Fold:
Amino acid sequence: MKSISKSNRRWWRPLVSIGCGLLCSMFFLAAMIWGGQTAFEFSRMVSDAVMLREGGPRLGARELSGDVVLVSYGESSATRLGKKPDLETDRKLYQTLMDADAKVVADLRNLVCTDPADFEANVRPTLDLIQEVAPDGNLARDVFLTLDVDYEVVGSYHDCIVHHGMSFKSPTMANRHSRIFPIAMHDYFALRETTPFWAVQRLTGQPNGGEAGFYQRLDQAGLVQHWLDVFPEMGDLLQLSGGEEAITPNPTSADYQVGDQEVSWISFGSEFPTVSPAGVWVDYGFNPGELTRLEYGDLVEGDFDPELVRGKAVLIDLELSFVPASDRYDIPIRDRQADALDVTGVAMETLLNGVTMHLTAWYVTPSLLIGFSVLGCVIAARFRARWALLWVALLLLGYLVISTVAFRDGWFLDMAFTPVSILVAGVLGVGIRYFEEIRWRQRITDLFGRYVPRAVVNQLVQQSELQSIVVGGVTREVTVMFADIRGFTQFSERLQPEDVLEKLNELLEVMVRCTFEEEGTVDKFIGDAILVLFNAPLDQADHAERASRVAWRIQEALRSHESGLSIGIGIHTGQAVVGNVGTPQRMEYTAIGNTVNVASRLCDRAAAGEIVVSGEVARQLSGSFELEANEPMQVKGIAESLATSRLVGFENAASA
Structure:
């Protein structure tokens, strides 16, 4: 008889769970690849909700440097000053900031010149004011000039002009307008760094190197070549002011040097050739709402604490309610729109931090997706449902921790498809275990079916599942057969344990086969003995004859067995209690009572190769059986001597 171990029955589970985990991960990986930009945007939205969103966990939140201060003109300033900003109020503001030792000041209010006359009347006075107040070049304003203005005149104000670049909204994707800050712009007069890069360069005390130095830094990062690759028409403009080519473009991409940091840049689709198609990903782990914000009117009147701006970068612009809709930005941290001050301030904090967001290597996301999905499926298949779900939850938490650490270190990890894949793989793992348990239950059913009728097995399985086993039974007449292998103990001493078990199973297999031919019920194996019931659980009118035929067939089958062993058999008929005995975890269908004890004593009385039956059995046998009377025997628990006989012949044995 073949045995089945717990480990043997589960050898396939890890392989199946690995396969299911791979299939699950491949499905979601294919969805990510085929989904393209849509899939990436969905993943980014989930990442924003977890890492950045106000009201959410904000796992990607970062601490502000405190080196950026915002100054805005809004309702409060308008009420206090009683007028719009003009050259007079700007002079007071700029002078106040310089006197308070602000390290660098960038005025984001766009000053546009329509013709040379307008330049002379409105723009030039402001540029003269900037040169007067900040001769060291640490104050600049966003100014756009018509090409009619004299080139040499504009060149004299080179250090006074800077562009914040956001107003162009150059990324072709609208949801990138506040996410990617362009590095450079060309205004047809000169190539300039955008505001946050220009301001950080000066805030950190790094030499700008002039226009040539800026060209050099762009080229070292491979940005000039990238710009020309995207917009070849910019070839004539990417030159020094003197008309000589500044550099031979460097084709190798590298980090861009800004201040004392090297930051990673990313390419983006740009609608304007004059805006560099490369920038940095703005990190809204810095909350713009936490930036120090002062009122324009308060500074003009000198009503503020100078320590708030000393040694810091100051950005100036109009408050959100004072700017047109075209200059408002959707940001991922909140539903409320932001102004250019918020976006530029966060961009500066991003550059000062030095950790800029970028995508991981191409193999990282697939590796994590496949690895975690397979692990989730294997673990879920290993444990029961409650523990499996707990382990899957821990895996999801582990991936969230990894994603958070990666995000805070500047790497985007998928926050949509991978977690869902882990969850689905975990559910598949639970399904695998459930299927395996059903499969194993069926194998157990098949195993017990070798010893008891299928009806009994089905009853036990059903009652075990429903937890409704009734401990007890009914009293009915049964015929009990005991069969014991004689001399097996001495026989086993000459063999190895494995050989002993093999020989024992061979002998028991013969006895079970003969029993099932007469629809007997194998109650149990007792070492090298077997207990068989007839007329239970199903009614069998000829149960005594069935037992006798089985005994005769067993003896005939084992006479020529190679082991040379023989069997003593005892058979008795009487009343016994039969039914389910045990607990829902361990049940046995068995018979209890004196009838079983008597059958055991008759087996002990039988010599090797003999079949001893009681008088109750003999009275129920037909003439087909040949019996020889034995001396009456005394059985413990029975007052009268028990008549017994030996079964020595069976007329239909040959045909049977």
Summary: The first strand starts at residue 68 and ends at 73. Confidence is low (pLDDT under 50) at residues 1-9, 463-471. The chain is about 45% helix and 20% strand. The CA atoms of residues 250 and 342 lie 34 Å apart.
